[in-house]
Amino acid sequence: MVDVAVIGAGQTKYGNHPLGLKAMWAEAATNAFNSVDNNFEAKLVEEAFIGSVAFGGAQLGNTAAILTEHSGMKGCSVRRVENACASSGFALRDAMMAIKSGEADIVVAGGIEKMNDLSAERKRYWLGVSGDTEWERLAGLTFPGTYALMARRHFHEYNSNHDDLVNISVKNHMHGFENEVAHIRKEVSFEKAASGFMVADPLTLYDCCPTSDGASCVILAADHVVREFTDDAIWLKGSGAGSDYLALHDRHSITQMSATQKAVAQAYKSSGLSVNDIDLAEVHDCFTIAELIATEDLGFANRGEGGIFAREGRGRRNEGDVAINPSGGLKSKGHPLGATGTGQAVEVFKQLKGIVEPARQIRDAEVGMTHNVGGSGATCAVHIFGRDR
Amino acid sequence: MMDEVIEQETIVWKGYLACFGNDSCLIQSPWILDGDCVFGADSDHTTLTVAAIQLMQSKGCNLDSINSLQDVEASIITLTTGVEVVQSSEDESVELSADWDLCIADDARVVICKTDSELELELWQPEGTIEVDADFHQEITAAWQRECAPNHVSQGAYISKQQYYEGAAARLTLMGQELDGEMIWPPRQMDNNGLAIPQASTSLHGVATIESWTKLAPAGAPSEFSFRAPILGGITTVFVRFEQGPRGVFLLVDDEDNNPKIGDQVQFVTRRIYAQEAFIRYGLKCQIIKE
Known about the structure:
Oligomer: heterodimer
Number of helices of chain A: 12
Largest interface: A-B, 40 and 40 residues
Number of strands of chain A: 12
Structural class of chain A: alpha/beta
CATH superfamily of chain A: Thiolase/Chalcone synthase
Radius of gyration of chain B: 19 Å
Number of domains of chain B: 2
Strand content of chain B: 25-35%
Structural class of chain B: alpha+beta
Strand order of the largest sheet of chain B: 1-2-3-9-8-6-7
Radius of gyration of chain A: 19 Å
Number of helices of chain B: 7
Strand content of chain A: 15-25%
Helix content of chain A: 25-40%
Distance between the termini of chain A: 13 Å
Shape of chain B: globular
Shape of chain A: globular
Order of helices and strands of chain B: HEEEEEHEHEEEEHHHEEEEHEEEE
Helix content of chain B: 10-25%
Number of domains of chain A: 1
Strand order of the largest sheet of chain A: 3-2-4-7-1-8-12-11-9-10
Largest sheet of chain A: 10 strands, mixed
């Protein structure tokens, strides 16, 4: 079987971006191309998988075609990949499989979302389109609501509490403060995060990620062509994906995500690695409770002990067991829906190459993980990257 | 006949006030403004009619059909109660053939009675009415008028009329499927082995237990609720488990601030959910059962 390497990765700054879709994608792709050590040209790309929800409907159809047209990749085989917030996590998996199939040697996976050029009213229309429209949304739920239901139930079942979520928020803001591409570069105190405006009881503003514009792009290559481009590739060692019922009420439990559990089990198996090998993990913290639950589902904490994990600071950069969201996560770095999955891969690529801002560098980082969730857990893609092949 | 009605005590039923006689039922909103009976945040004559029929059915009345000259959502009444609505406007010649009449007052009251009854609505003074804030009532009424306008359309998440009616039996009567002794609700097409599941044929019991809940701030509410959520101060959703196993999410009735708790038991009432393109989506909302 062909091994797959990441030879380049880049992204835009996340936030309220001044550029539109085409220019944002061009910027992310150019940053990715320029990050390749040697001899890379856009025309070498054979396949492109671009994740996007197409938020706002600006380019709902043929999104990938117009983006590649504007980034030097016209003519290659393209498609938009849509799995809500996990769109580009799945784009990355599809890109990897295209290479492993032997059909392509150089493939781009990326993602993009433009969320902040809409009126408040139009934005409200689009937020939550990835939940269960017929049953959950008719009951007044968008994602803050669904995650709030999970949080309250987790508190009830495991004696976790809102302070645990506050600790996650404070940590991720601290991690993101030094990140030049983060949407919200602002540290927050425990007291401030604990007293935020209530969005969906018990979740406050400081439990919720921002809506961000952004694009991200990674370049994958087959093992037999890697040396043409770099002597220092990052290897995509494992991949897994899973799905679950879309609506919370159909699931066995609302305090865990079986899609994550399936995905990470596959990723550990295909990489031959275990939870103890992970030095850093970019975890899908669209809401702080999502990170708490993910630390349990990914195996960093025992079932029901995600609150304790957060309370004890075990995910803090260069202090805890494993660095959880060294980029700042969705909470601080931002969450441009379709761009988030490959944006996580950009962070892991740079951490493992040792090229992030020095203050954020995870010491002796050898193995990193990305965990990208669609909606409230209907889809999930997990990838494990390593410096060693 | 009306004398008989007057003698009945007030029944608190599905969030409304009712009195019941052998051949009639009067039901009204509990909300009063300047002496007039007015609708709450999510009620109308259709939801009152549904509640009245359900009360009569619970008392053993055998209604197959009712006559109605007024404008109610006949399909919702029929789907929810099984009672056919024989409907005619004044300029049409449809024969009102049912044994029961639906009489809709100008205010928030309806009466269902035998066709030969003579009613005097003013005579009944129910206990348990609540004075409603005038500003609140005015704002929520105006919000519904905007929401029900034909040009109030949706982008993004959207439930078409066809999709709404496809799930209406499950939505309005909790109709679920039975498979290997287990109830499945809301209904689905196939089981986890890819085998077809029998059609929905059994309703869940109308009592469930809250397993979680949230109150969404107005700005966090879906756009479908964006006119009313600011007036209501947010909307409350509960995640419940039915006695037969399935779980579901529902809004609290009247969006009232009644502090749900995990473990609280709820019952279900028919109310307006939201409207788009002049089509009101009705559904079930939860009402906490107070001890």
